[in-house]
Amino acid sequence: MTFDIGIPLPALMSQLLLGLVNGAFYAMLSLGLAVIFGLLNVINFAHGALFMLGAVLAWAGMEYAGLNYWVMLALSPLVVAVIGVVIEKSMLRWIYKLDHIYGLLLTLGITLVIEGVLRSIYGVSGLPYSPPDALQGATDLGFMILPNYRAWVVAASLVVCLGTWFTIERTKLGAYLRAGTENPKIVEAFGVNVPLMVTLTYGFGVALAAFAGVLAAPVIQVSPLMGQNLIIVVFAVVVIGGMGSIMGSIVTGLGLGVIEGLTKVFYPQASSTVVFFIMVIVLMLRPAGLFGKEK
Amino acid sequence: MLQNPPRRAPFASQLAIYGTLLAVVLLAPALGAYPVFVLKVLCFALFACAFNLLIGYTGLLSFGHAAFFGGAGYVAGHAMKAWGLTPELGLLLGTAFAALTGLAMGALAIRRQGIYFSMITLALAQMLFFFCLQAPFTGGEDGIQGIPRGKLLGLLPLDNDLTLYYVVLAIVVAAFALIVRTIHSPFGQILKAIKENEPRAVSLGYDVDRFKLLAFVLSAALSGLAGSLKALVLGFETLTDVHWSMSGAVILMTLVGGLGTLTGPIVGAFVVIALENKLGDLGTFLARATGVAWFDTLGESVTMVTGVIFVICVLTFRRGIVGEIIGLAAQYRPPRKPAAPAGSHLVDGG
C-alpha cells in the first residue's frame, strides 16, 4: 500500500470517477431500501433483482422493439414500478404484522424467482448494451480524459437522489411520508390513505432501483446475476450509514464508492471486500451506523 | 413475533418419532438407498438443525451460515488432503475454524439487532467468500478435489461406503443429541426467553449478549462440523458451499421443515435436497402426465422453484411441515388433565 507518485494522475482520476459511478448506484439503491424500510418495515432483498430487471428491460427494449436508451430510461422504471405495486399488493401486504425476518425471506424468494426466470431465458453470460450515441466518446479536461457516459451517470443519479431528498424532506407529500414512517395509525386517522401510500412508496423505491439498473446497463455487463453481489454490498452500505437519514444514505453510498475506487488503485486485492472491512470498523466504533439512531 | 412452534409432543410419541427416524437411517443402506446420498442429506440435516438452534430457539436470523459450513469444509478438506491428517483431526480442525469464525462474526453481529443482524452476517460471510475465491489453497473456481477419506484414528479405513456411512451417522446422531440436550437445558430455556422477550430477559438480570454469542458460536461450530463431514463424504469442496445461496438454502430447509421444531430441519433438509436432485425427474413426470412440454425444463430451474417454495412458505405455511403436523396433532389430542402439581409446568417448556 503506497501513496507515492507511482500512480499517474489521470489513472487515479479515472478510478475515482469509476468509484463515483459505483457510489451513485450504491446511493440510489440504499436510498430506495431506506425509504421502503421506513414505511413498510421490510428489507427488500429483491432490490438487486429489480435493479437487474431494469437493466435487462433496457436491453430487451433495444433488442426486441428498437426502443432507444432514453425511452427505456423512462419506461423501464415505470414497468418495474408496476411490478413492484403488484408484488406489494399481492404478497408483501400480508406480512407487515409479522416479524421483520419474514419480509426478508419473502423478498429473497421473489429474488430467486425473478433471477431464475431470467436465467432460464438468457443464461448467465452478459448481454451487450452500448451507451447512447449522444454520450459516447470522452471529453479532454486537461488533467484527465472524462468519459461522457460516466459523467452522465454521476450527474443523473445525483439529480435523482437530491430530488428524492427534496421531495421527502421539503414537500407536503414528503411530510405525509415521514409522518407515516413515524406513526401510520395517526396519519390514517387524519384521513390519509396510508395503504395506498405504502404501495406507491414500494413502487417508487423499486423504480429507483430500475432507474439505476438502466444507468448501469452500459457500464456493468447486463446479466441476470448482476444484482446479486451488488445487493450484499448495498446491505453493508446500509449498515454503515444507518437507515435513519436520506442524506446519510446518499453521502454514505457515494463515499463508499469513492473509497472502493481508490482501493482499486492502491491495493486491488482488497477492492471487493473494502466496504465490508469498513462495516466491521463502523460496527466496532459506532454500532448504530454513521447516521443512525440507536432505538 | 416469530411464529411460535406448537407445544412439544408427549414423551411416548417423541420416542416413537425418534425411534422411527433412527431405524430408517440405520436400515437405509440395507433397504437399497444409496449411502452417499443419505449421508449428504444427513450432513445438511445437521447443518439445518444447527441453524435452527439460532433462528428457532434464539430468534436470530443469520444470513451467513454458509461461511461456517463451507469455510469448515475447506479447512477440513485442506487438512486431510494437503497435510494428510486423519479424518477425525480434519473434522476437529474444521469445527474449530467454524467456532472461531463464529466467535468473530457473532461478536460483531450481535451489536445490532433484528434485520441489521441478518444483513451484517450476510456481509461478513461474503467477505469469507471473496477470501476463498482469492486464497491460493482453496483452488479458486475449481475448489479442492479428491479429498482422501483416510483412516479413522489411523486404524479404520473409510473407503468402504458402508463403513463411512455408520461412522458419519454416529457423529451426526451424537451432534443431534447435543442439540436436543442444549435446547432442554437451562441454557436453552434462557435462549428461548431471549427470543420471546429480550427486554424482559435483560431485566431478569441475564447478560443477553453473552447468551446470544454462545448460541451463535455453538450453532457455527455445529454447522462447521456438518460442512467438514460433507467434505469428507463427497471428497470435494467448492465455492458453492461458501456462497450466500447456501445460507439461503439452509434457511429454506429450516423453514420448510418447521422453525423451532426439533425434527423439522431434518425433514426440511431431506425435502430440499431430494427436490434439487429429483426436480428433473419430477418435471419429466409432470410433462408426461399433463402434456405441458414446459415441465421438461423444470430440472434447469431449481432457483426458480426454490424461490416459489420460499414465497409459499412465508405466505401460507410459516409453521413448516413438522410444525403443521404437531399443530394438527395438538388439535385432536384430548385436553391435558387439570390439577397438575404446582411447579410442574416449569419443566414442561416446548
Describe the fold and architecture.
In chain A, 71% of the residues lie in helices and 2% in strands. Chain A has helices spanning 9-40, 47-65, 69-90, 100-122, 148-170, 172-182, 184-189, 194-216, 226-241, 246-266, 274-285, and strands at 138-140, 145-147. Chain A has a two-stranded antiparallel sheet with strand order 1-2. Chain A is globular. Mean pLDDT of chain B is 85; it is low at 339-350. In chain B, strand 1 (151-152) and strand 2 (156-157) form a beta hairpin. Chain A binds chain B through residues 37, 43, 91, 94-95, 98-106, 108-117, 119-120, 228-229, 232-233, 235-236, 238-239, 269, 272-273, 275-277, 279-280, 283-284, 287-288, and chain B through 1-3, 55, 61, 63, 108, 111-112, 114-116, 118-120, 122-124, 126-127, 130-131, 134, 244, 248, 251, 255, 297, 300-311, 313-315, 318.
How many beta-strand segments of chain A?
A: 2
Secondary-structure element series of chain B: HHHHHEEHHHHHHHH
Please state the overall shape of chain A, judged from the principal axes of the Cα atoms: globular
| H and E order of chain A | HHHHEEHHHHHHH
Per DSSP, the total helix count of chain A is 11
Weakly predicted, low-confidence segments of chain A: none
- Global Rg of chain A: 19 Å
The fraction of residues assigned to DSSP E strands of chain A is: under 5%
Number of DSSP-assigned strands of chain B: 2
